[in-house]
Amino acid sequence: MKVKFWGVRGSIASPGPSTARYGGNTTCIEVRTDENDLIILDGGTGIFPLAQSLLAEMPVTAHIFNTHSHWDHIQGLPFFTPIFIPGNLVRLHGAYNPVSGQGPEQILTTQMQYSYFPVREAEIRSRTEYITIMPNEQVTAGSATITPTLLSHPVVNFGYRIDCDGKSVFFTGDHEPYSNIYEPEDHGYAEYQSLIEEQQQSIVEAIRGVDVLIADSSYTIEEYPSKKGWGHGTFDSCIQLALEAGVKVLYCTHHEPTRSDDELERVFAEAVARYPEAQDKLDIRLAREGDEINV
User: Fold this and answer.
1) Contacts of 187 (CB under 8 A, 6+ apart)
2) Is 97 exposed, middle or buried (0-12, 13-18, 19+ CB in 10 A)?
3) I want to staple 251 with a disulfide (CB 3.0 to 4.6 A). Which of 2, 178, 194, 287 is the partner?
């Protein structure tokens, strides 16, 4: 498999000289199998430059897997040029939304309302399929097997494990470590703690042994207390998760949009230094727009 980062910022696109080194586009990751099957993880603003690169290989079959429906993970989808070209096949996979009662079709239907976007959904010319998926139910995309895992975020968020040709990648989308809503002295503390430990272990097992983990590491441990409940992890929580799951390579992504590249490198280095035991077990890297990985 090959993996390429097209967007690694979180929350809002942040172009400019202070973010040029790691990139200002929001989440989008391209995965290619050895058979050249195209899998796209999320449709943030980074999917627009990806779309431009695909124009040289029409027609395309694109398997898009949406982690969740927050703006920074879907904003680029109406700009995914292949959907307007006849002969292409675009499959958009995503979760059922229990609030709206709709699946991934809602993502484009809502964004392409005339009040928000000048091109209507009716003008899509590709063959477009909307596929609602469920936690732990495997889906095939060409020669790859994709397994969705329910993670912790204010809306339904799937992490995706991709297995193909003996290699594996897991992308968390947005994920915040589970925490107990009770105080230790409260009556419900022990029962709730048991529940979240079970949930956490199920996530560890879903990730177990992957070659590459791409994880939401938006915050530092100093920043996290004021951001708790927003649905994002820290560098430390991602390193701990990778170590527990026996991952080979960890890419930290969803970079805080207000953080310059210099500051990003500084806080990343500080976090890595706290885990000397990881040096011989885990390769820890910062995701950078444009980087390609041969898994």
Assistant:
1) none
2) middle
3) 287
